[in-house]
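>> received
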Amino acid sequence: QVQLVESGGGLVQAGGSLRLSCTASGRTFSTYVMGWFRQSPGKEREYVASISQSGARTVYADSVKGRSTISRDNAKNTVYLHMDSLKPEDTAVYYCNARSPSGDYSAWGQGTQVTVSS
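>> returned
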C-alpha cells in the first residue's frame, strides 16, 4: 500500500502559477501510474493529468492542456503538477492518485485546496 500527501495549494490570482506536490510513502512509488484529479463544490471529481511510471508518457485533460505540466521524481517518491495561467474555474481541491498498472489498486491523498481569485 501507499500513502499520499499533497501540498502546495493556496490562494493565487488569475494568471498566476502554482506547483502542487504529492509525496508517497513506501518503496514502490516507481511502479505506480500517478495522476492528479480535482473536485469543485457541487461537482464530481474530474481527471486533470497523469504520468507513466518512468515519466516518459504524460496525458492531460483538455481543460488544463498547454497550461499544466505533470512530472515525477522517483528518487524522491514525488509527483508534481505545475499550473500556469490559472483561471477562477481551476479553483478546486486537487487530489493525487496512485494506480497500479493493472488497475486493481488505487490510493488517494487527502487533497489540497487551490483557490484562484479573479
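>> Residues 9 and 114 are 5 Å apart (CA to CA).
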